[in-house]
Amino acid sequence: MRIRFTKMQGAGNDFVVLDETRGRLGLSAAQYRWLADRHFGVGADQILTVRPSPAPGLDFEYVIHNADGGEVEHCGNGARCFVRYVTDKRLTDRNPVRVKVRNGQISLALDPDGRVTVDMGAPVFDHARVPFDGSGLTPDRKLAWERWPLPLAGAESAPVAVVSMGNPHAVLLVDDVDLAPVASWGPQIERHVRFPARVNAGFLQVVSRREVRLRVFERGVGETLACGTGACAAVVAGIRLGLLDARVDVHTRGGVLTIAWQDTPAHDAPVMMTGPATTVFEGEVDVPDDLA
Ligand SMILES: N[C@@H](CCC[C@H](N)C(=O)O)C(=O)O
User: Fold this and answer.
1) Which is the closest atom of ligand 1 to the Cα of 77?
2) pLDDT of residue 153
3) Angle at which helices 76-88 and 228-240 cross, to 10°
4) The pTM is what?
5) Residues 261-268: contacts with CB within 8 Å, 24+ apart?
6) How many CB atoms neighbour CB 270 within 10 A?
């Protein structure tokens, strides 16, 4: 099947964007995997699919597949690229744009400086909704909020803060992200038995109360140059741990994201994320239909 696509990136987290506003392409998980493949396909961390509004009061639906072909709930950098795409393609003239994602809705605005600001919704801390199983573990309460000790191979234990931004995140404090064990601990945390839906693993270095460095080993992908929901989760965790102010610049390997979250007694304020969204190129490709 021959399809048109747009290649985009936000802080180096890269996407193949597909337009299904005039009809479904009907791709299989294997075909999404092929599109994301950097050797045999186009190459991307995620595939974003734009669909028409599913309900009054919404402008679009967008669907996200990880490079492993699995559908996921949320993608922060993808959300910014999504709004750049529907605006540049003149699929809408609304600003902000209201979009349905898998388990909720988000609002996205193009800023005058060319960046995009996304209302990412409120973080979720309820373990059942993350989902996370902390039963039998004793949390570390040395800081203002708890961290849960995950046993890893080699008898090491990783103390993680647990938060959902619509998708699950485990956030680990490290002294220096350049030296963090992302390649060895990332896959173990991603598939840890305590996270039944798997998890994105964030390695957070606090530089000051307004500046952090972050690397994320993403569920279904591996380490990416940036993760938007990971940046939101890391800043929310840092604020709840008492280490960060309400507005923080997050330095990733692919660029800077600004995250703002005003903590309240109910911890239910929305997280605002601002960052870049860029079109790289457009193309057509023959997607094999005999993939296993
Ligand atoms: N790159 C994304 C997150 C994409 C989904 C994630 N890998 C998951 O499985 O939850 C972002 O920018 O948020």
Assistant:
1) 12
2) 86
3) 140
4) 0.97
5) 261/123, 261/232, 261/235, 261/236, 263/239, 267/122, 267/123, 267/125, 267/240, 268/122
6) 17
CA dihedral 280, 281, 284, 290 (to 10 degrees): -20
pLDDT over 70 at 128, yes or no: yes
What pLDDT, on a 0 to 100 scale, did the predictor assign at position 104? 87
Predicted confidence (pLDDT) at residue 155 exceeds the cutoff of 90: no
For residue 279, CA distances in Å to 16, 75, 102, 197, 276 come to 10, 17, 24, 31, 10
Separation of alpha carbons 37 and 44, rounded Å: 7
What is the percent of the chain with per-residue pLDDT over 70, rounded to a whole number?
A: 100
Report whether 288 contacts 34 (CB < 8 A).
yes
pLDDT digits (tens, 9 = 90+) for 247-288: 999 999 999 999 999 999 999 999 999 999 999 999 999 999
Q: How far apart are CA 198 and CA 258, in angstroms?
A: 26
Pairing status of strand 46-52 against strand 13-19: parallel
Q: Which amino acid is at 82?
A: F
Mutate to test the pocket of ligand 1, among 14, 68, 72, 216 (most ligand atoms within 8 A of CB): 72
Q: Report how far residue 146's alpha carbon sits from residue 141's, in angstroms, rounded to the nearest whole number.
A: 5
- Ligand 1 pocket: which of 73, 200, 250, 274 to mutate (most atoms <8 Å of CB)? 200
The answer, yes or no, to whether ipTM is higher than 0.95 is: yes
The tokens for 275 are 């960052």
| Residues in Cβ contact with 166 at an 8 Å cutoff, skipping those fewer than 6 apart | 73, 74, 101, 102, 103, 104, 120, 121, 124, 229
